[in-house]
Amino acid sequence: MKFNLEFLHISLKTVLQISLAILSACSQETQQNRNTDEKSNAATNSTTDDETASKDPSNDESTCEGDGCKTTQTSMEVCKSPDSPLAQPGSIQEFIDLLNLLPKPTTINCVLQSLKRPLEITATSNRFSAQGATSQKSPRIFIQLKSLVLTFVPDGPEKNHIELAETTTFNQSIKGDLELPITETLQENSPFRSVFGGGEPACANLCHSNYTQIEAYSDGVVKYSSERIFPKESTIVPLIDLEIIREGCEGDNSQLCYFYRSLFDHGEINSFEFPKQAKSDGLPF
Q: SS3 sequence, 170-207?
């Protein structure tokens, strides 16, 4: 009887040890499975974030160097200024040539980034224009390049348009308009199609006066010059106000802020003033 009890005690002790070993092994395996699941979930989330980022149109980066351009996918579009005098165009034709150098599709932001610095700009809060300001953060912005003035609005229905004015005399300039993004090579008369596509000025004397025909193209498009009209001095938005808008864009990836980064983050920006003697009634430039 004593032998049997001792044998039973040893047997129970052995069973207990085996059970504890099994439980320990199971616990380790469960922890390993949890770690594997966590790593798998982290990898899945990372992949999802990357896929979401790649679908964001503001993550398309286009890099243009010299006369050759290449397009890659990163976190921000960057269009470098071409190694060419065209980076500072002085006429509508030179601006067309610049756009034809840039990667396609060519966006407003790419154009802003590609222009050689320093840039001279001013802005108006005037809303009464075919390309009028839409809010305090979206005034109409003028960039002066020699005899050429480009105008933009950061937001609103005309945010994808660039209006052009090439000065011919103190009181006259040739007007044009381009809608972006641009997906194909522009022709010489491309900026005049929407403005004078029917052979007559689109808004005639409602916008400007003293129209003079400069050139008629074979497809019916006509190039005109007309009176230069400048913004009222009371509507001019100081450069510091635009810089404050840019400073407020830290961490903001909206298209509005993308516009301001494209304008301010690629070199020196200065302000300019329109001639005081010119006609000024707040109508389009």
A: CCEEEEEEEECCECCCCCCCHHHHHHHCCCCCCCHHHC
43-52 in b/e form (b: 16+ CB < 10 A) is eeeeeeeeee
CB 95 within 8 A of CB 174: no
Measure the N-to-C terminal CA separation of the chain; round to a whole number of Å.
116
Using one digit for the tens of pLDDT, what is the confidence trace for 207-230? Answer: 667 888 999 999 989 999 999 989
Q: In the sheet that 140-145 helps form, which strands lie side by side, from edge to edge? A: 212-216, 222-227, 172-179, 161-169, 148-152, 140-145, 119-124, 269-271
CA angle 278, 284, 285 (to 5 degrees): 50
Helix, strand, or coil (residue 127): coil
Specify the pairing of strand 119-124 against strand 269-271.
parallel
Distance set, CA 17 to CA 11, 12, 26, 31 (Å):
10, 9, 14, 21
pLDDT tens sequence across 181-205: 999 999 999 999 988 755 555 565 5
Closest CA relative to residue 203, chosen from 166, 231, 152, 163: 163
> Can you tell me which residue has the tokens 């290449």?
70
